[in-house]
């Protein structure tokens, strides 16, 4: 009993928050990332507003507002990107675990070898390396490996890691072949990633066309004004402003709808 109490004082996994691992559904941007999001949002908005309304002041005001507003969406983008990277790293970790189990290593030795492999491949600061370090610390503190994997799955919010943690727990309790389970999980994740890559390749052309279509109206406006065309809506009368606002709304709506159509999650 005293030993268990001491172990919990060293490391106590909690659902969604361990104190040592990260919650992957929460992304805190650093100053560089915040500045990047702000500048991208501000620059893009300023260009669009200036081309439509010919007002530097309005462009700056709208640009600053969008630059601040876009922060949470850029954070969500980076969060999703981090999860995808973690899944790729997790797949490589399973590859290392399979090799270790095949060579006759026990669970502790297999995870220790996987930690060394991931350090060599991704470096000390990689997410999977930090997670393996937490798992090894938990093992040394007499925490069940199933509990540690469950905690990892809770924080990552990735279905593949969740499935692996659940199957691993059942295997340990019922005496299943862990090597075969890890190998099967690795194969499933590999197949899923390959399918996602194929779909992404098929949709890449559509996404590029969507981006070009969103830029084309701006290019047309600049070209027509440069040629002195009378078809452009000039001036900032109430009617012209209304037409421009409606046009911008249609462009934004078309882009959002296009992104939803070309985004497929498995």
Automatic annotation (TrEMBL):
The UniProt record lists the keyword Transport: no
Record's keyword terms, sorted: Kinase, Membrane, Transferase, Transmembrane, Transmembrane helix
Record protein name field: Kinase
GO terms, molecular function: kinase activity
Source organism (scientific name): Eisenbergiella tayi
Transmembrane stretches, start-end: 35-53, 59-79, 210-229, 241-258
């Amino acid at each position: 009993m005293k030993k268990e109490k001491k172990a919990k004082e060293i490391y106590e996994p909690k659902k969604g928050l361990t104190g040592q691992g990260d919650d992957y559904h929460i992304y805190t941007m650093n100053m560089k990332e915040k500045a990047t999001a702000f500048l991208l949002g501000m620059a893009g908005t300023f260009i669009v507003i200036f081309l439509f309304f010919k007002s530097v002041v309005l462009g700056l005001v709208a640009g600053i507002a969008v630059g601040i507003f876009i922060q949470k969406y850029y954070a969500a983008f980076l969060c999703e990107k981090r999860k995808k990277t973690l899944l790729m790293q997790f797949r490589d970790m399973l590859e290392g675990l399979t090799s270790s189990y095949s060579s006759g290593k026990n669970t502790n030795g297999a995870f220790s070898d996987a930690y060394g492999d991931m350090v060599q491949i991704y470096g000390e600061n990689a997410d999977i390396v930090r997670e393996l370090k937490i798992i090894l610390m938990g093992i040394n503190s007499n925490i069940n490996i199933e509990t540690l994997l469950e905690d990892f799955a809770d924080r990552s919010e990735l279905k593949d890691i969740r499935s692996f943690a659940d199957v691993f727990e059942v295997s340990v309790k019922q005496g299943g072949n862990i090597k075969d389970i890890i190998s099967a999980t690795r194969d499933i994740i590999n197949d899923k990633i390959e399918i996602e890559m194929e779909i992404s390749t098929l949709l890449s052309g559509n996404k590029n066309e969507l981006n070009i279509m969103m830029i084309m109206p701006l290019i047309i406006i600049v070209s027509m004004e440069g040629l002195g065309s009378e078809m452009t809506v000039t001036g900032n009368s109430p009617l012209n402003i209304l037409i421009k606002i409606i046009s911008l709304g249609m462009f934004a709506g078309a882009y959002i709808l296009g992104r939803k159509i070309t985004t497929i999650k498995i």
